[in-house]
Amino acid sequence: MIFLRDNILLREPLRPEHIKPRLLGHWGTCPGITLVYAGLDKLVCETGTPTMLVTGPGHGAPANHASLWLEGTHADLDPALTRDTAGLTELVRRFSWPGGFPSHLSPQVPGVIHEGGELGYALATATGAALDHPDLLVACLVGDGEAETGPTAAAWAASRYLDPVHDGAVLPILHVNGYKIASPTQSGAADDEDLLSLYTGHGWAPRIVDVRGDYHDPELSPDARMAEALSWAHSRIRQVQEAARNGADANVPRWPMLVLRSRKGWGLPAESGGAPLEDTVRAHQVPLPHAADDAAELADLEQWLRSYRPDELFGADGVPAPDILACCPTGDLRLGANPVTDGGRLRRPLPLPDVRPFAVDVPEPGGARAGATPTAGPWLAALLRETETRRDFRIMCPDELESNKLGAVLEVTGRAWQPEPPVAAAHLARDGRVMEVLSEHNCQGWLQGYLLTGRHGLFPCYEAFVSIVDGMTNQYAKFLKVAAEVPWRHPVASLNYLLTSEGWRQEHNGYSHQGPGFINMMLTKKASVARVYLPPDANTLLATLEHCLDSVDRINVVVAGKNDGPQWLDLDDALAHCRAGAGVWEWAGTEARHGDGPSADDSPTGSPGARRPHPDVVLACAGNIPTVETLAAAEMLRRDAPGLRVRVTNVVDLLTLPPAERHPHGLPDAEFEKCFGGAGVPVVFDFHGYPSAVHECLHGRPDASRFHVKGYIEEGTTTTPYDLLASNGVSRHDIAVEALRRAEGWSTRGGELADRYARERDDILVELRRTGQDPVAISEWTWDGGR
């Protein structure tokens, strides 16, 4: 696959024109992957254990493709990849070819739930796949280069979280072949004793499988050694599970793992052109890279390929020899055909509880106080209760559930934990469905594996620290984008982030905890995948979570607060507002006071054909704290500038802002104008995150320069809430000043008022720095209902 475009079975002498113009792929890891795949095939044939393989070294994809072709899974899903000369030629040509398979694993490849393009995430993903699949064996091949990454180092904690009663088993296989692209690996440089000590300390029962020698005794052959090790691991797994499931063993299980030592690029010529090849860094990627241009390298390549004796392995028609095909499992027991690897086939819609019993009673806007996440917590607890028997919904969280006021879920299920709990610990349970670990990488990997094998989940996280998994999210977004283009892939439940402890209430933790940049990262993803929601209160959070947990093939980012604050919408209005994504809050603006001007737009909330004058300024907001500040500014202007026509628009779905041709949630032009006014109307937009995110969304809208976006501009410290807002220019006083300066004809008329607001802001800042707290008029502000 790496080298050839034709003459696949070497039925004629190898010539330069048989070589691909671009040689891509990593040969060095392929022999080890092939050995593991063949060993797992043998184990499955002997035991009937449903098994899947998560392959960390993704650029070793030729090994996976070869095994999938041999077992017939490729042909099942693509008739062009038949098990004969034509099908094998097509497979080999497609590898690393335009329009074909990429050089690494991808969603186009059967059996794949992890690409391996960005190293470090295989073991956590494999663990997520094993959760709540009690009969499943998930083998996970971890490269020794990959083992040097931080995410992999954290992922070894899986041994302390897998429940032998309700979960399947993960069998890690650390593939130690000694080299990365250009330097030795740490594992390759370690001796057996060090490796055994390391992984014993991580809670595993490790075993060395060394296949580097030349074994002539069949009982010592690499295949025999791998088969014996896999049989030992399988027996140990079954012993652990049977003891736990029979109630005979409450001890912490020590799951087996294997350390496979092989030669780098095993099978290569020892040297070429006087330089060593096998078991060196030159074996890592493409050895013999000049075979098409160098006659000596071409001869070495042909000798190497013929050393596998293709005439013995394939018949005249290219069909593999019967004894080789007999080594493969059949039906759904094939590693590439296991139904869990196309988890959408198994996904069932969640039994989402009715949100009404959990909603906040809001008799009028601002007429109640509540916290968004404390309101959502009991609803999530009810969902956990509804799925208790099904066990297909979990919460993965970096040790922050109670900090983010979602502790109600712990009344229904515990935190998954296998060791004996410390005396002071609470809510720990071996069968718990809350996964708390202080590793965002683990939470992300666990959830990806869980979703891609047919289940549902939620990832609450501190907003500032979710960016730790930017790379993983990026890879997963690409996986979803490509998977949606693969005809045989079924939709999977969406990956849902609930970002709490958001930056505007991290004034007590300070600058390091203030970081809304995850939103910006999501805006770079495909419109078919990315969603960003900023519910302004508790009822809109309920409505948003209900929608997100019912969706498929998306990455939903929901940003919500945890502290008590004013509530704006009753549940019916919240549901309608979330369906629209953005809307005018008639009760908050002053347009209704002025019925004497021309209008070009209809009321978005009034009766059909209702008319209103153009606003002088639109105050827009997205996010719970920006909503409070915007409404406080609107109230100030209502009181002090009664002639100013103010429209207040709230945005809950950030991706209603782009034009409809750029994003499927984008508002049509007419609806956009209803929310934000027509050409020339200034919009002061108070945004939860970085202003650049809104500007990026607005790109392509007519007259986008009329939007003046205020947001987080990297100013912060340990201070009071108002000081943090004012230092970033997003306080109620800053918004009111901006509105007066931007509204046509008001920069002069309202100049004195704007100066007064600025002085009030500065006086508050002086006083709070003296007292250490915000004035009551700020901290206990309530909406006056327009009175």
Automatic annotation (TrEMBL):
GO molecular function annotation: aldehyde-lyase activity; magnesium ion binding
Residues covered by the Xylulose 5-phosphate/Fructose 6-phosphate phosphoketolase C-terminal domain: 562-783
Cofactor(s) required, per the database record: thiamine diphosphate
InterPro entries to which the protein is assigned, alphabetical: THDP-binding, Transketo_C/PFOR_II, Xul5P/Fru6P_PKetolase, Xul5P/Fru6P_PKetolase_C, Xul5P/Fru6P_PKetolase_CS, Xul5P/Fru6P_PKetolase_N, Xul5P/Fru6P_PKetolase_ThDP_BS
Keywords: Lyase, Thiamine pyrophosphate
Family note: Belongs to the XFP family.
Domain Xylulose 5-phosphate/Fructose 6-phosphate phosphoketolase N-terminal span(s) in chain numbering: 1-345
Keyword Coiled coil: no
Name of the protein described by the UniProt record: Phosphoketolase
